[in-house]
Structures
1.
Amino acid sequence: MKVYFSHSISESIKHKYLYLDNDFLSELFKDEIVLTETLHILDGSVFLIDPLTALEFLRDIYMPQQYNKKKKFISNEIFSPATNHQEIYKNLQENALLLSRIYAHQNHKNRSGVVDLFLAARLMYYQSPLLITGNKKDFPSCVFDTIGVLNIEQSGDGVMKPFCLIQFNRTNFEACYSALQKLPQ
Amino acid sequence: MTDYREDPKPQYEKRTPTQIRLKPVKVTKKIISDLVEIVKENKELLRKAETKYQL
């Protein structure tokens, strides 16, 4: 397995808060070469784990040994847990509902899952954090910009799997929100 | 959103996404080796489980 990336990525993420989506985290957990290369590429940013991403990462594992390995992995000092309390969720819920309505209005065909909506809501809530995800379709271009792509070659079939670095675009969001508000009641 | 009967409004926060402002953690050899060890151990665990299943 090998990682291909544009060198501008390392500059784009310097000193930024970077949320890691579950698919990306799982990719790091799968292979030590990918893990090592990727951590060097993304060095310089603050790696954040959303509480719902942690839940996705740890869910469905019944073998205690494997569960403990995963738990130990995301508990490493390099990964920081994102703030998690009830007051934030009230605000995130509001953003998530708004985003889902905007996606639908903008003819975004794919229906994003609740976890992705909450992650998108977090990207919108805070000032310019980034997200790295393999599911770009859950973060549509009407509201989110892609600022870089990291490709991971899969072992065996050699298929290249892209992971996008995305960022909330407040100007585009405000335009979409305004269009939504203009709909006849 | 405390009441779903009200229309949602965009919510923005000026504070950082963590409890305190964090500096990036430097990716050190120690961090890499700790994580690589876990990944390798997990691979071995899965391999053993697979072998057991095949038998």
Note: DSSP finds eight helices and seven strands in chain A.
2.
Amino acid sequence: MNTRIPELRKANKLSQEELAQAVGVTRQTITSIETGKYTASLVLAYRIAKYFHLTIEEVFDLSEEAF
Amino acid sequence: MESFEKRIRFRMKAFSILLVVSALLTVSIALWQHSVGEVSGTDEMGSFFKGMIKGMQIGVFLGIFAAMLGFIVQYAKALKNEAALKKLYIEENDERSRLISFRSLSFSFSLILGMVGLAGGIAVFFHAAVAFTLFAVLILMVLTYFISWVIYSRRL
């Protein structure tokens, strides 16, 4: 799943650790989401989107996901 | 975070009780072994295996003892420091870590199930008691799986 998290982090001058703490996960989880190894749950996706004052669709791109 | 703090305090108390119980058991078993001399059913075994059986019992309880002590120290540190408590909360509730644990357990269970079944099948040719024991373990594992499957399918 493609994500805009790295871009949003850079724009907000945030480290992975800072974002992880803010949304209540470990830094490794953020790394895995950014590299596409792990797909965030709906709750975590919502928390991340809310943190950046965006919608889930604006942060995560599900168009390439196989259903 | 408040409910997590309560949970940690409860765990600390529970682990402290377990720590005392495991310490008492370790000492009791050591004393009992000293008075009995040999563990029953080890007559035909060499001194190495006799020693290993005795050592295993003490080792298991010492392992529990060390683990409980480690958890108590970790919880005590977390309760004194808000940042450490939050770190512990994140470590315990991180969804990726939970998924890793779930998949590891699921894979390990399947692998152990297969290995115990295979070992039981091989043991039939060598020792009936060992084979029956392994098959009993296999049945118990499968039974536990189905019972927990029913419990969770009702909960979720």
Note: Chain B is about 90% helix and 0% strand.
